[in-house]
Amino acid sequence: GYHNTLIYGHNMKDGSCFGFLPKYADESFGMSHNLIHFDTLYEEGEYELAAVFYSQIDEDELETTEDRAAKDEIILAEGLKNREEAIRKEEEAAMTEGETSEGSPAITHEPVDVSMVTLKDLDLFEDMGDVDIYREEKDNDNGRFRYYYYTDLSDRADFDYYAENLKKNSLYDTGVDIEWGDELLTMSTCSYHVKNGRLVVVAKKID
Prior knowledge:
five-stranded mixed β-sheet; single chain; elongated
């Protein structure tokens, strides 16, 4: 238990992929289609509808791997520029000192190999180790239920928060309660009620 399988799928006009998911916003449809089959390579699973709600993804959380890599390149370039400027000033200071103090060696540096420099080398990247980088956001949602942060529900506080928000945000009461240890399936698809909107359907596994 304690797992929350999160799946995002496009809602195609022909009903393929998650094209059926928006229908769950209608209570009569949801309650008459409350059993969901989700099979994997390892097992066949049957789930019972628990909650349906609308949400929204923050703009900066739509960032792709390519977006992040591009931003890192910009940060790296700026860091290299700052480092080279610091080296230049250091060399100028050494040369000035050499002119006034006979025999003082000037400081020289090997050219910086840009291809080998990383953000960590420039002290622009902090190794977070085992720290949950989303913990602060999870603890300070400011009224926005970031359902997509909760794939691992082994932490009791996370589980309780997730279960509480499912009940609070659900468009209708499914009559199904989420209990500690339940295995969940969370499906989401685009919704156009707001920019970057999502319709989310959550079901719990039936033993």
